[in-house]
Amino acid sequence: MKIKDAKKPSFPWFGMDIGGTLVKLAYFEPIDIIAEEEQEEVESLKSIRKYLTSNVAYGSTGIRDVHLELKDLILFGRKGNLHFIRFPTHDLPTFIQMGRNKNFSTLHTVLCATGGGAYKFEEDFRTVGSLVASSLTLIDRVCILIV
Fold first, then answer.
1. Which long-range contacts (CB under 8 A, 24 or more apart) does 123-132 make?
2. Residue 115 burial (CB < 10 Å; 0-12/13-18/19+)?
3. CATH classification of 13-135 is 3.30.420.510, yes or no?
4. Where is this chain's protein located in or outside the cell (predicted)?
5. How many angstroms separate the CA atoms of 64 and 146, rounded?
6. Mean pLDDT by 10 residues, the chain (147 residues)
7. Which of 35, 70, 106, 121 is deepest in the core (most CB within 10 A)?
8. Is this model's pTM higher than 0.90 or not?
């Protein structure tokens, strides 16, 4: 699988669908990291990558669907694995707090979320997660800009 090169966004690469009962998270884990990139990688990014890829269960309700993982995917010219994680929507505030605790907002990245929960939890992303939300109505998604 290959998606054409475009401007390569900073890592981590996430996407979320926040539904009424379930949050679905897609995470791209680069596997073609060169030594120079690894040295430049900030501790918070290493912490997030290790947490998401070394577990199959997160807390009592989060699950990484290993059987759905896409290996050796080429995305924006980077080779990596695409992971799928799901957890109940009622646990989203805990997820946002975990992101804050892992200093996710220091990474200057974009997190896009679809679904009604993207709007419902927009204020939580802003206040708890220290994120700025930008609504894109074209495809009914909200991009959470981490500044």
1. 124/92, 124/93, 124/96, 125/96, 128/93, 128/96, 128/97, 128/100, 129/96, 129/97, 129/99, 129/100, 129/104, 129/105, 130/100, 130/105, 131/105
2. buried
3. yes
4. Cytoplasm
5. 24
6. 52 84 92 78 75 86 94 90 95 86 67 82 76 46 45
7. 121
8. no
Residue with tokens 């090169």, as numbered in its chain:
5
Q: Residue 104's closest CA among 43, 40, 59?
A: 43
Q: How far apart are CA 87 and CA 103, in angstroms?
A: 21
- Cβ neighbours for 138, distance < 8 A, ≥ 6 positions apart: none
Q: What is the DSSP string of the chain?
A: -EE---PPPPSPEEEEEE-SSEEEEEEEEES---HHHHHHS-HHHHHHHHHHHH-SEETTTEEE-GGG-EEEEEETTEEEEEEEEEEEGGGHHHHHHHHHHTTGGGG--EEEEESHHHHHTHHHHHHTS--EEEEETTTTEEEEE--
Nearby residues of 103 by Cβ (< 8 Å), 6 or more positions away: 43, 44, 47
CB of 95 closer than 8 Å to CB of 106:
no
